[in-house]
Specification:
alpha+beta; Rossmann fold; seven-stranded mixed beta sheet
């Protein structure tokens, strides 16, 4: 029987089963969590709503005339007590926060009986805080959306039969059954069945991935087609999804360099403004002007300028399968003007295949392949896998080598049947003092010009033949390189361990004019160091083989790291999918975040504060208008930052 997500018919009884099914496309509105905590959603509106209502009723004067109660004063007290209480707690911790300045301004306005000014200050303060919380809540949707992907139960097959268990009771090695329209509850390997798994919530890739026996699957992804039996390899906090949630939470808590500057500035800003207010009072003798300075000059907007923008941008990125590890990484990405990109696994699929076997001796092609397979049998290199796969495809029996040695950046030397088998590049054969015939040199030039990698085989001191391997350029690579250039990147460099001719062919296909070939890991690090002398450098690699270069760069971007905890940890930015264009999106988002932060600081914070203070000292505004001006700046910062939540580059919009 074929199961398909769009058409599958599930009975009402099945819908009631606690199976963790959460396919919104199949059952819209079927969400058991709805209705819970709705009162919490609106609780933040309560205090500003009450204060605002008291101000409106107080200004009518009806209650004062009938009961003798000034509701405006009550509004100032109701809204002001939490602010003053918070300021006192801060002072006890020796923290001169902005609440201190607000509290002083509030108390001073009440002292001179400017009740409406004090009430408006606290009202707009609470409205600004509400807007900030709404913005943060929206950016928190990235985490909540990831948390919503975690099924609560799993259908497990054990010796005593099939049962539905809470996810906490699932154990390593358990066989978990996942039907169409169900989210996969664990990380594991498909032990039986075939399916089409939608990994979009994790990778941003909307096209379902076809999986079968032996393929890896991840918690939270949606099985759209087929029935899968999965052997559990990771559970609980060890799954890829749990790891991603933790990183996003840590990233949103991380402070950017500009945020630290703003924090330090705000710390000294409070006593500075108190000083200016005192000078205004002694110079003019007008206490109203001094209090107006206090009201208008509070640095709330400055304190909000960076964190609101950083949190909004990181939340935006997380929804697109881009993990940015905090404000520092976001700001660094925004300043990148040079990109170094690895070839294998980044520009190409990293899944090379043998294209031709050529003997330059009396040995047959079969003999050449067997000897090459012996040398590479225990190697994890992608080129080694291509040779082993070819041998298996032809049904060849490959004996184990008695010993082997990997020569980094050159190849491998193995020992079998008292023979020394040498397989690698020109440098390896030169090290072994093995010369190439002219015919082989001409063959290599033709192959390498076509973008193929050639592995040279020798036995003892005799050259035997060549195995040509090709790695296909990823679909959309040229467009992604163009997007990187359009994002403001001034220099693009491709690094590879391949020979110059192969490197030139791949670089040309990708649209990169600057490349370095024959690169060992230390050579890549040195290349990045040289570039850092002139540029802010991002390195894009697979996160494991390129770890030294990623660590050396100003920004390390690891691509296609879903399922790889080590790769996610190694990079500043982790792209969960295999789409190189996501790197351009991350850089563009960083640039937009930097522009937003600068606008928040210079326009809404320092600019409006300076204007407000001038107007206050000149006597052109009173306490009420000062309260309005001060809070316009804070609200402006929050609204400006919130635009990052929905930000899309113009290129992304064209593609969508």
């Amino acid at each position: 029987m074929t199961w398909k997500c769009d058409n599958v018919k599930i009975s009402e009884e099945q819908m009631k089963e606690p199976t963790g099914r959460s396919c919104e496309s199949c059952h819209p509105g079927h969400d058991r969590s709805k209705g819970k905590g709705l009162s919490l959603k609106y609780r933040g509106f309560l205090l500003p709503g009450v204060v605002g209502l008291l101000i409106v009723l107080g200004e009518t004067g009806l209650v004062r005339e009938v009961f003798g109660l000034d509701l405006v004063l009550l509004a100032a007290l109701v809204g002001g007590v939490p602010i003053v209480f918070g300021a006192v707690k801060g002072l006890l911790r020796k923290d001169m926060n902005v609440g201190v300045l607000i509290s002083i301004a509030l108390i001073a306005s009440l002292f001179i009986e400017e009740y409406i000014a004090g009430a408006i200050v606290v009202f707009i303060m609470h409205v600004g805080e509400l807007l900030e919380n709404i913005t943060v809540a929206k950016t928190g949707n990235a985490i909540r959306a990831l948390l919503d992907l975690k099924p609560k139960t799993a259908r497990v097959r054990r010796a005593d039969g099939e049962m539905v268990l809470p996810i906490e009771e699932v154990q390593l090695g358990d066989r978990v059954l996942v039907k169409p329209c169900e989210r996969i509850p664990v990380d594991g390997v498909v032990a039986f069945g075939q399916g089409a798994v939608n990994q979009a919530p994790l990778t941003g890739e909307s096209i379902p991935v076809e999986v079968g026996v032996g393929d890896e699957v991840f918690e939270g992804t949606l099985n759209e087609l087929g029935v899968l039996e999965i052997e559990t390899t990771k559970i609980g906090q060890e799954t890829t999804l749990a790891h991603i949630i933790k990183l996003v939470e840590e990233a949103q808590a991380d402070k950017a360099p500009t945020q630290r500057v703003a924090d330090r500035f705000a710390k000294y800003f409070t006593p500075l403004i108190l000083g200016i207010a005192l000078i205004t009072y002694f110079a003019t003798g007008d206490v109203i002007k001094a209090i107006t300075v206090l009201i208008v000059a509070c640095p709330c907007a400055l304190v909000l300028a960076t964190p609101t923008a950083v949190i909004a941008a990181i939340g935006n990125a997380a929804r697109r399968g881009i993990l940015i590890k905090g404000g520092r990484s976001l700001e660094a990405a925004g300043r990148v003007n040079a990109v170094v990109v690895d070839k294998t696994g980044t520009l190409t699929y990293g899944n090379p295949q043998v294209t031709e076997i050529r003997s330059f001796s009396k040995k047959t092609q079969r003999d050449v392949l067997i000897r090459a397979a012996i040398a590479e049998k225990f190697s994890e290199h992608p080129l080694a896998k291509a040779i082993i796969n070819k041998a298996q495809e032809l049904g060849l029996k490959v004996p184990d080598p008695s010993d082997f040695q990997v020569i980094l950046g050159r190849g491998v030397v193995a020992y079998a049947s008292e023979q020394t088998v040498i397989l690698g590049n020109r440098k390896l054969l030169a090290d072994q003092q093995i010369a190439l015939p002219q015919q082989a040199e001409e063959y290599l030039l033709a192959k390498e010009a076509n973008g193929e990698t050639c592995l040279l085989l020798a036995e003892n001191d005799r050259f035997l033949g060549v195995i040509s391997v090709a790695d296909v350029l990823r679909e959309g690579t040229h467009q992604a390189i163009t997007a990187l250039k359009e994002s403001g990147v001034k220099r693009m460099v491709m690094l590879t361990g391949d020979n110059p001719r192969t490197a030139e062919a791949i670089a040309s296909l990708a649209g990169i004019s600057d490349f370095a070939a024959d690169q060992l890991p230390e050579d890549k690090v040195n290349t990045v160091k040289r570039l850092k002398q002139q540029y802010k450098v991002a390195v894009i690699g697979d996160g494991i083989n390129d770890a030294p270069a990623l660590a050396t760069a100003d920004v390390g971007i690891a691509m296609g790291v879903i399922g790889s905890d080590a790769a996610i940890e190694a990079a500043d930015i982790a792209l969960l999918g295999d789409d190189l264009a996501q790197a351009a999106q991350a850089i563009l988002l960083g640039r937009r975040a930097l522009r937003t932060i600068k606008m928040n600081i210079y326009l809404f914070s320092l600019g409006l504060n300076a204007v407000g203070m001038y107007l206050a000292i000149a006597g052109m505004v009173g306490p009420v208008m000062a309260a309005v001006l001060h809070n316009i700046a804070s609200v402006g910062v929050v609204l400006n930052s919130s635009r990052l939540i929905r930000y899309k580059s113009s290129r992304s919009q064209r593609q969508s």
